[in-house]
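Sat 14:20. Reprocessing the chain from the morning session after the first attempt stalled halfway. Input below, unchanged.
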Amino acid sequence: MDFYLGIDFGTSGARTVVIDEQACIQAEARFLFERSEISDLASDWKRALFTLLERIPQELRQQMRAIAINGTSSTVLMCDAAGKPVDAPLLYNDARGAVVMEELRSIAPSNHTVLSATSSLAKLLWMSQLPSFAQAIYFLHQADWLAFLLHGQLGISDYHNALKLGYDVEELKYPEWLENLKIKIHLPLVVTPGTPIAELRSEIADQFGFRRDCIVCAGTTDSIAAFLASGAKSPGEAVTSLGSTLVLKLLSRTRVEDARYGIYSHRLGDLWLTGGASNTGGAVLQQFFTKAELESLSCEIDGSKASELDYYPLLKPGERFPINDSNLPPRLEPRPTSDVEFLHGFLESIARIEARGYELLQELGADRLTQVYTAGGGATNPTWAVIRERILRVPVVRPVNTEAAYGTALLADEGSREK
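Finished this time. Tokens:
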């Protein structure tokens, strides 16, 4: 029996899932990051990776066929010729690239995905001004570097992670405008996610008791891995993540890109995964309700009836999608005396924002929405599901698996079969 390992590096920790040949979960483990200095981040990642390998049952390690890793999108670092970081990594939400935006706009096409202060390319341009840049040989994403620790091949990425670096996922090459930058650092060789890269380094295989021919495959981003876990495969199927924020991803035969709304598309085989992220979501709900209150009050809501309250729930001014307005104010009034009515208005309003997001994607050319899988904490609220199904007018279902590590294990399985 062969087994497949998916490793998910998120914002607060890392997780592993081991699946068998039938895609059934055989083992899971978690590692929570400690609060440490930003300069120690890479060391924390390495420690998490090797600790998680140790936590996999020995009998599964001995039959592990393939491994894949996902990381947070646009979390990047610079390395020397030996793969050692030459400076602290920049996390996905680090916006220091804002100071190079004028330069970036003069380089990249208008409305391009890289035209964001947090894009990988904006971070690279900012890093190129650091004294440490003189020692840098390779520019890598988090998932690229972690995979390197396992297979030993430097400078390889996947086209999900490379999208916000400017890689052309339609032509499958770096565009001419990016190559003309002539930045004195090696940009990654970009391959299809799941592509077998190399066998596990012999010393790693021996140290942890893995089989010597275990393959390390090219990885992906955490959000794409969560989509893969859902099981959505047909154009028109979508995944809504109801976490701290609201994230929509719709599978489409047509690529949709529009930086005006924060919309971009990832390539997924012959299809496109298009979507956007709103600042509304669970974090706003938690400002007003405890977890227990959300559960008890939801039970008193009749989800089949519309709420007359019209809110735009935000923690602070500013929205990205489906309205792109950095000054959009939160709309949280009027507040009724009934907490049940208040929560009903919240849930209904967030569902309307979700519906508008999918409408916008379709207006810009994406496939017609047919079904929505739900991930994140909000997926457990059955009342919210009823409200959303009424407003979206398509089936709303909760997938069996929503963990990014599970989706990454599926990617390892698929990749190993290509070898």
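The radius of gyration is 22 Å.
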